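Researcher: Let's do a round of design. I'm pasting the structure tokens now; please hold your answer until I've finished.
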């Protein structure tokens, strides 16, 4: 199975490395696309080493497509995926997906995902951010599209010290969600 993993810039980005490891142990191919903010938390080299694939951080990078279908990497990567997941999904990336803004590698690839590729979204943010009306509206907008599956955040002690909803789902739950939505 080909898993496309989007990593956006939050403290939970380090858990995406563990997610890649779990996926690889299952024998899945994993490609990682990162926002610029994500690279501040985890270096692309980490994901390259774990996935054995290059990491995309540039929205307009060109090169050889994984399947030979296109010389534009973001299109080719979107077509390559059997299932796609953004983990962690920040409030910013959520807003971009909800409004169709494609101004970085992750949102550009996600906008290019074929309709048959399941798109799973695993938010992680502070409780106050999660509860903001605009964040909840963006979640409703995405739900109305019927295009994305939410892997809800969990209640726990967050990196900032607060306790509440907003923690990234456990890696085992993320892997189970990928399996459940695999073609």
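Researcher: That's everything. Go ahead.
Model: Designed sequence:
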């Amino acid at each position: 199975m080909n898993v496309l993993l989007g990593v956006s810039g939050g403290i939970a980005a380090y858990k995406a490395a563990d997610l890649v490891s779990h996926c690889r142990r299952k024998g899945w191919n994993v490609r990682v696309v990162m926002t610029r903010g994500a690279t501040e938390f985890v270096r692309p080299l980490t994901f390259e080493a774990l996935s054995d694939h290059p990491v995309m951080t540039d929205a307009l990078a060109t090169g050889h497509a994984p399947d030979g279908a296109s010389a534009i990497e973001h299109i080719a990567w979107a077509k390559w995926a059997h299932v796609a997941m953004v983990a962690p999904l920040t409030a910013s990336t959520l807003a971009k997906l909800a409004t169709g803004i494609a101004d970085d590698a992750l949102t550009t690839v996600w906008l290019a995902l074929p309709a048959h590729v399941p798109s799973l979204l695993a938010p992680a943010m502070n409780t106050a951010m999660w509860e903001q009306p605009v964040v909840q509206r963006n979640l409703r907008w995405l739900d109305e599209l019927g295009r994305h599956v939410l892997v809800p955040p969990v209640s726990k002690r967050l990196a900032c010290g607060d306790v509440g909803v907003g923690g990234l789902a456990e890696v085992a739950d993320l892997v189970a969600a990928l399996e459940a939505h695999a073609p």
